[in-house]
């Protein structure tokens, strides 16, 4: 009974019924005011040492999540001395103290967010769960802290779908956004490519050569079920779901040159929306579903174009460079990320959705391809050969805060998930 | 006496090592998380993390899976044949060059002389294009060879095409010598 009451008390802040007014920091530009936070090692109940190092691992993961979000400057320390009333002298905004008890199978985690200057507890959270989801609960905690202090929903519980050849074949995987807990979703022993998420987060589409043709397949994100969506002879590639989840845009060849079509999610209702010569591929929907940005070489070289989602009003967006491709519309609708090739290598660029204000985001770092936006529009996942083998990296929209994901094999074509499950 | 004690110590040590080993193996997969690069990742087991499964399962049950009900049959893989020689292409191009046209003429003769076979033209690209664009460029290269063979009298229904984009390079080097070998149509026979 008491635990139910306690849980309700801890749960209320997550519902937005906080007992203090959240400090809103909306800017993540370089040098702008970040929330400074100190995070000591989590304390194990009873003061027992943890040979597994979970006291440090959980605090590290939390600090990484908060730092990556761009809102925080989180520092790790071994411990914080004294009680909260003395913490104003630490000269930080907040302190986050974590504690846990574990028997090796179950772990109960609790954490307090303390306003260091006032010495008061802003938020108190508890996660009584299996050890299997320890990392998941720290990501949940990080998102709850981000929301409490910024009013923004974090992305710490999102996933990245990607292709890796670590089994010697290009298969589809998903991992936590920080690269942990990777799970293989295909066993096609052929070639899988270009994953795309349904807006619900329940399904991932991908192209596979399982039937000796690049067909469009789907798999549930649990990996439990799969099937085929489009299997026209030739290309069924670069599939992108409309934001309402009703349609899929993709590239088909069907014995002629590559065109973009839309189809209903059941694979029927085909509507060809490009009708030019040359190659049309790589569609990406605007977040309001009314437009599609894509790659076409109809004027002689591959460039980025936009059109209405029924194919009307085609207009070219890129005018510098001889090869611009793989466009990705930001979730906020204001920007398009894409790649530009120069001297045989690709770099990631960003422009306004009308083509203005081109900004280059990667420099002298191998070949960088397939940008994919985080659902909050503040980060981009991409592949890069900067360290030799192709690997997945994350960066913010200034090209900073670059993080390499610890994944095996040669990895490519990342797709950042929407927000999933309970934190939508 | 001495021998028994030594034996006892050895047994105890063996027991310790054994249980230590077993204990470690049990913990390894779940707690450290991340990617074990020593062995291929296992496919998501249906019963993993039972606390997590229900929401996903419910959500999936409410949202029907995409795609049609009818699913097509599987197709067998083809094999290369020495007589059918590859043809190669210029950077960013799918145009059949004169030397390659001569190779295709020989290929056409072989195919016409072997009426029972189905030939698949596999179009490929070097790594200097995007994944999406190169899939389409590889398709154009395959189609170009097929169209030329058809113009030489090969029945169209004897020829299939497939593009691998840049996913199946012949040479994984990062220089012009390697790239030139990868910009190719390769032929396999069913």
Structure description:
The complex is a heterodimer of chains A (424) and B (190). Chain A has helices at 2-11, 54-69, 134-150, and strands at residues 35-40, 43-44, 72-77, 94-102, 106-115, 120-130, 159-164, 171-176, 183-184, 192-197, 203-208, 215-220, 226-230, 236-241, 247-252, 259-264, 271-272, 280-285, 291-296, 303-308, 315-316, 324-329, 335-342, 345-352, 359-360, 368-373, 379-384, 391-396, 403-404, 411-416. In chain A, a hairpin with a 2-residue loop joins strand 23 (335-342) and strand 24 (345-352). In chain A, the strands form 7 sheets. In chain A, strands 1, 2, 3, 4, 5 and 6 form a 6-stranded mixed beta sheet that branches. In chain A, 10% of the residues lie in helices and 40% in strands. The two termini of chain A are 29 Å apart. In chain A, helix 2 (54-69) packs parallel to helix 3 (134-150). Chain A is elongated, with a radius of gyration of 23 Å. Chain A has 3 helices and 30 strands. By secondary structure, chain A is mainly beta. Chain A has 2 domains: 2-150, TolB, N-terminal domain (Rossmann fold), CATH 3.40.50; 159-423, Neuraminidase, CATH 2.120.10.30. Chain B is of the alpha+beta class and 190 residues long. Chain B has a domain at 82-189: 2-Layer Sandwich (60s Ribosomal Protein L30, Chain: A), CATH 3.30.1330.60. Chain B contains 5 helices and 5 strands, in the order ααββαβαβαβ. Chain B has helices spanning 2-31, 53-62, 98-113, 131-151, 176-182; strands at residues 79-80, 87-88, 119-124, 159-165, 184-189. In chain B, strands 1, 2, 3, 4 and 5 form a 5-stranded mixed beta sheet that branches. In chain B, helix 4 (131-151) links the parallel strand 3 and strand 4. Chain B starts with a helix and ends with a strand. In chain B, 30% of the residues are buried. At the A-B interface, helix 3, strand 9, strand 11 and strand 13 of A face helix 2, helix 4 and strand 4 of B.
């Amino acid at each position: 009974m008491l635990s139910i009451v306690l849980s309700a008390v801890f749960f209320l802040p997550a519902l937005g019924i906080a007992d203090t007014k959240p400090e809103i920091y909306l800017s993540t530009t370089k040098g702008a005011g970040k929330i400074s936070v100190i995070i000591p090692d989590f304390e194990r109940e009873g003061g027992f040492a943890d040979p597994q190092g979970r006291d440090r691992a959980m605090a590290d993961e939390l600090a990484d999540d908060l730092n990556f979000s761009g809102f925080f400057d989180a520092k790790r320390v071994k411990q914080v001395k004294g009680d909260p009333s003395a913490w104003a002298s630490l000269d930080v905004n907040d302190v986050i103290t974590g504690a846990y008890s574990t028997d090796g199978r179950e772990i109960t985690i609790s954490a307090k967010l303390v306003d260091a200057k006032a010495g008061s507890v802003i938020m108190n959270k508890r996660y009584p769960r299996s050890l299997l989801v320890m990392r998941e609960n720290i990501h949940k905690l990080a998102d709850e802290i981000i929301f409490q202090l910024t009013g923004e929903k974090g992305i710490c519980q999102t996933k990245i779908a990607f292709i890796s050849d670590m089994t010697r074949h290009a298969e589809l995987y998903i991992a936590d956004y920080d690269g942990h807990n990777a799970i293989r979703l295909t066993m096609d022993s052929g070639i899988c490519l270009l994953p795309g998420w349904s807006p619900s987060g329940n399904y991932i589409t991908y192209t596979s050569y399982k039937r000796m043709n690049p067909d469009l397949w789907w798999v549930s994100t649990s990996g439990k079920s799969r099937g085929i969506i489009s299997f026209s002879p030739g290309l069924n590639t670069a599939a992108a779901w409309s934001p309402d989840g009703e349609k899929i845009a993709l590239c088909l060849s069907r014995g002629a040159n590559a065109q973009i079509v839309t189809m209903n999610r059941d694979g029927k209702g085909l509507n060809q929306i490009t009708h030019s010569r040359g190659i049309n591929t790589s569609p990406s929907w605007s977040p309001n579903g009314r437009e599609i940005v894509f790659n076409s070489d109809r004027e002689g070289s591959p460039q980025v174009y936009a059109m209405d989602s029924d194919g009307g009003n085609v207009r070219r967006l890129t005018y510098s460079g001889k090869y611009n491709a793989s466009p990705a519309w930001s979730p906020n609708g204001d920007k398009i990320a894409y790649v530009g090739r120069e001297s045989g290598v690709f770099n990631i660029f960003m422009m306004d959705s009308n083509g203005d204000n081109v900004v280059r985001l990667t420099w002298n770092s191998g070949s960088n391809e397939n940008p994919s936006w985080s659902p909050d529009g503040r980060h981009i996942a991409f592949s890069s050969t900067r360290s030799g083998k192709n690997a997945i990296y994350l960066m913010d929209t200034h090209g900073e805060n670059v993080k390499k994901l610890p994944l095996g094999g040669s990895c490519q074509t990342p797709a950042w998930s929407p927000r999933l499950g309970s934190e939508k | 006496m001495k021998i028994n004690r030594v034996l006892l110590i050895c047994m105890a040590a063996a027991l310790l090592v054994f249980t230590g080993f077993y204990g470690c193996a049990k913990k390894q997969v779940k707690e450290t998380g991340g990617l074990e690069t020593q062995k291929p990742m296992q496919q998501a087991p249906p019963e993993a993390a039972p606390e997590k499964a229900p929401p996903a399962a419910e959500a999936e049950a409410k949202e029907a899976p995409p795609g049609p009900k009818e699913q097509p049959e599987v197709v067998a893989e083809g094999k290369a044949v020495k007589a059918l020689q590859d043809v190669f292409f210029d950077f960013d191009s799918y145009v059949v060059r004169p030397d390659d046209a001569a190779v295709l003429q020989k290929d056409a003769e072989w195919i016409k002389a072997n009426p029972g076979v189905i030939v698949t033209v596999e179009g490929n690209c070097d790594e200097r294009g995007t994944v999406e664009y190169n899939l389409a460029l590889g398709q154009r290269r395959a189609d170009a060879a097929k169209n030329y063979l058809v113009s030489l009298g090969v029945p169209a229904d004897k020829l299939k095409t497939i593009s691998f984009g840049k996913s199946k390079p012949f040479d994984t080097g990062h220089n012009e010598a390697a790239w030139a070998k990868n910009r190719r149509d390769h032929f396999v026979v069913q």
